[in-house]
Amino acid sequence: MQRLTAPILALAAALVAPPALARGEEAPVASADQGSDRYATFVPKAERRQHRIDYSVWTEALAAFVVDMGPPLRKMPTPTVGTLGTNMRIGHNSIYRLDGSMVGFSLMDGEVIANIAQYRRDLEKVADELDIQSLPRNEQLAYWLNLHNVAMIEVVAANWPERQPREIEVDGVPLDEARFITVEGVALSPRDIRERIVFANWKSPEVFYGFWRGEIGGPAMQRTAFEGRNVGQQLADAAEEFINSRRGTEKRGGTLHVSEYYAEIAPFFFPDFEADLRAHLAQYVEGKVARMLEQSERVKPSLYEHDIADLAGGRRNNAFFANGRLDPGAAALLAQRERKLEYVRRKVPREGRIFFSNIDLPGDPPDKNEVE
Q1: Is the dihedral of CA 18, 20, 25, 29 positive or negative?
Q2: Over 70: is that where the pLDDT of 249 sits?
């Protein structure tokens, strides 16, 4: 377990480094003229400055404390066993626990959490030094996705152990509604970033899959930061994983049950809910899920799982059962993950995909990979 723990502790010094700016001259400080709409200042501008924000520090952090649970298999995980022959269960019991990714909150100490908070403040400062709204749209999108997710990781980590992130409050306000993020002088909540900025200014439903909500039932936290140069492919990969997993889609009888999150984002992306959602899902479904979509008669947003997407399940177990520094709940989940990956290695056909989306060819427009 030292291979996972050591990099997390080593991040304490690295995370204080502010996100770097590359490729472009220093931009003037943007004014926060909000007018009658406090979010109007964040509407993307027509003119574009060819700047790029470097998130390599955040990628290093994510690689250290995010564990990819492997491809969606749509198989029921084996039941967890009791501790030392007892009936006491440890860690996760969600049927989705081997989907998506899990965050090692039990491995983060106070110093690491403080430095994640500092990195969030550094991201906020970038907007004071650089006119975010005049960046290429993919750069803007990557900025908002990363800022949202850094802030969520920060607060969930500071409140761990908490089994359900929706129960967390910041100064008495639910986490999703708390305006503890400040960009260009405007106080924002995680929901504000998603709905008032990104959902309001991007029409591709794929942007939904970039926002981590802390819950197993939502889109997975990625192991690399979002980057303007390939954010479109990153979001497409996240969409494919979520849609083909049991937390995204499930068929019972003639009904295709889908994540409740789709009902939440429907006003932005699926005004004709069933027809629009079916068209969206059809772009990503594979194999069994493609047949489920084709054979279903109706769509119902009913799937949810509010438990934390955390290796240890949001629980600090009795130190009597601890094995070194690794929480026994986390150890149990990692063991199940290893059995799943061994099954994948033995049973699932290998396939390779090559993407060329980041290659600029002569005559290509500068926005050829832009997420709309």
Answers
A1: negative
A2: yes
Residue-wise pLDDT for 288-313, tens only, equals: 999 999 999 999 999 999 999 999 88
Number of CB atoms found within 10 A of residue 321's CB:
15
Residue 181's CB is within 10 A of a number of other CB atoms, namely 22
Render pLDDT for 184-242 as a digit per residue (tens, 0 to 9).
Answer: 999 999 999 999 999 999 999 999 999 999 999 999 999 999 999 999 999 999 999 99
The number of CA neighbours under 13 Å toward the Cβ of 197 is: 28
> In sequence order, what are the residues at sequence separation of 6 or more whose Cβ sits closer than 8 angstroms to the Cβ of residue 281?
243, 249, 258, 293
- DSSP code string of 34-48: -TT-TTGGGSPPSS-
- Token pair, residue 31, equals 């004014």
Is the separation of the CB atoms in 29 and 72 below 8 Å?
no
Angle between helix 56-65 and helix 2-14 axes, rounded to 10 deg = 150
The residue with tokens 């979509």 is: 293
**Which of 171, 6, 93 is closest to 333 using CA atoms?**
93
Dist. CA 361–CA 269, nearest whole Å: 32
- Asked if residue 26 has pLDDT above 70, the reply is no
What are the boundaries of each domain within the chain? 2-22+49-201+309-347
Q: What is the pLDDT, as a whole number, of residue 47?
A: 73
